[in-house]
Queue: 4 jobs
Job 1
Amino acid sequence: MSRIEQTANELLQLLNQGEISAVELTQNYLDRIAVADRQIGAFLRVDADAALARAADIDSRRQAGQPLGKLAGLPVAVKDVLCDTDTKTTCASRMLENFRPPYDSTVVAKLKAADAVLIGRTNMDEFAMGGSTENSAFQITRNPWDLDRAPGGSSGGAAACVAGGMAPLSIGTDTGGSIRQPAGLCGVVGLKPTYGRVSRFGLVAFASSLDQVGPLANSTEDIALLLETIAGHDPQDSTSLDVPVPEYTSALDQPLEGLRLGIVREHFAEGLDPEVETTVREAIKVYESLGATVKEISLPHSKYAVATYYVIAPSEASSNLARYDGVHYGHRTAEDCSLVEMYCRSRAEAFGPEVKRRIMLGAYALSAGYYDAYYLKALKVRRLIRQDFDAAFEQVDLIASPVTAEPAFKIGELANDPLSMYLVDLYTVSANLAGLPGISLPCGFSKTGLPIGLQLQAKPLAEETLLRGAHMYQKATDWQTKRSDRV
């Protein structure tokens, strides 16, 4: 087995035992990126010199017996939406094409403190608005399992770099499924934590009440390791939860006795691809063989989740993106014009079509005469969706469902059909609206060799239960060990 096929925990053990150096490991991944990313396009930027210098520093400190961080020497890729003083943060937008943050986001600061080697910045849908990573202003990212297909989004680069063997760990963000959906389509593991579990300080905002930072990797053990590193209270984030962070890694192997698994009736209805349904139901049978009790449950308001999300998220986006006016930072038009025209030209030149679409949707929903009819009503439905989950978790410990209704779609297939693109997140947006943790696990493949994902959801702050439940499945199957050989 090559180094790039090993899990982060296996690599960390080799590093700690001195069987490989951080420089050697980093170079292995840089070599892989040089070969594979020409076809995949997962990275926007890779600073090989800086990564190797950091790895060399970690090696020297390890040899001197100095204390090291939890991830010492492990390469980690970061979605280009988290501020980092050492590199530009573009959000895959012309608006921030040359933006250099004056401070580190809390997540990046924690990765640096843990002695991770930040190997590169991954591509994304512009300002995290999209489900295919086709909306980047700079390049399209391709699915490592089929280069004609999309990796999902908006964290498509973060998922594709792990699936393509270009990083053992990566950081993404999830506003409506943007970690879980690409993880499912790329055959890796991706976790969206409870809202507030991971600090959003230094995360360039899309929809502030929905955004959450989370890990992607090849196994639940690796997810637990990375979540343990980035989670925790942050006084710089007013929405950060002041609660202890469990030792996720040490709890993984504790069996979940008497696990009650809920199957959402509404998630196995019309529109679900038969191959996906069969594969997910087979995964549920694995849980039954492990002693879990399976119970059908209902989330009656889930049918309104996509509509609710696409009122709330664009409304928050239109407010958050109002700051990009060509004055303080970001793109400014070169045209000589009046102040108001400068605002308009700067935004028109720098924002892509999907960002403009969502700004307009949000501005309309928040406008006088429509606020009560759309935004306020959406907030009320959001509360009903959360109440559905609260009632469900009185009956079950975890909820199982597909991640997406179909395997990865072809690049360009949904580009001119925004509604169909929005429906790709049908099974994931509810967790964001309710603030719940959710995880995507590989559970099989279509007849054409495309990954299919299983989604598990838990009640707020129950990441430990979620990870233990996911780990039960991964110990009983080997889907997480599969790697694409197409690149």
Note: The chain has a mean pLDDT of 96.
Job 2
Amino acid sequence: MLKHFIAPFGLIFALMVFLIPEGAASAEGDGLIVKQSDFDVIKTLDRLGIALERAGIKVFSRIDHAKGAKSVGMELPPTAVIIFGTPKIGTPLMMSNPAIGLDLPLKAVAWKGNDGTVKLAYTDPEWLAKRYGIKDKDKVFKKMTGALAKFTEMAVKRSGLPKM
């Protein structure tokens, strides 16, 4: 009986996965902002890292998911994450709600899609404010949102990153 009840949901989920276009996520529903890059995955994250560090934001780590997949005998198109932040901004947010530490430091992921395009995605800081119910740091979240929009644009567009 349960098997007959669950089967239609599996079919619905499978249809959703195939019918929702890649990169269809938006900040309105799930807080995800996705941009298309003019560069490959590594160069996109390199450029983002440079833009962040020039602004005094620490890059803590990078994770190469494709390399991890290869280590267990699986293939994954180029996919990598950069983890970054600054305690100067993150600490006051965690003082308002320590649970935001689940999403701090911030992260961005770049991947090569099935269509050959490279995408860069990150969580909208203003969405994090709503998720964690932080109402006393609106200026901080607005500043973070603007800065991330600027830095990610520098990372994904050929004209985005000025020379040193």
Note: Confidence is low (pLDDT under 50) at residues 1-27.
Job 3
Amino acid sequence: MLDQTALDNIRALQRPGQPDLLTRIIDTYSRNADALVKALHRALQDGDIDETRRHAHTFKSAAANLGASRLSELCRQLEEQARAGDLAQETNLFEEIHAEHERALTALAAERIESSEPPGDGDHAASA
């Protein structure tokens, strides 16, 4: 579901003794992504091609940064359709984006829990 390389790249930036970076980034994404989905939906309902393109581009990048590759690809498709001025299939594509966004949130929540576990807890559970 998630590209572990993207998540590992974030983990590699973690500084000892600092709050968990991956958890902070996932939390920020989770807070902002729902608003972005709503804004994208509103732009599509209004037929605003420029806003649709802009929101799809932003969403594409945010999803890619956290390894939600399928979501990023769907947003890229919508961005390209908007750039071409063709939003004829936007309802179906938006529904796919929305569903994939929900799957990504679920996967990111699991990553967040795993990331916030103190070192050694997972090892102990695995050996028990």
Note: The chain has a mean pLDDT of 88.
Job 4
Amino acid sequence: MARSIVIDVYECNGCGSCEEICPEAFVMDDGEKAALVDSEAEVTDKVEEAAAYCPQKCIFFE
């Protein structure tokens, strides 16, 4: 079963590290919070790297 990417936008501080590391999966939305480019995005090594570098640890997988 594929894991899905979850972003806790309440914890996101809008630093943009996820978008910088993995722009194919993450973008900063109008509220300056992290969002997914595609809600069906796959968990790749780059997505995992972005989650690991997130200072708020608000990116996780289900």
Note: The chain is about 25% helix and 20% strand.
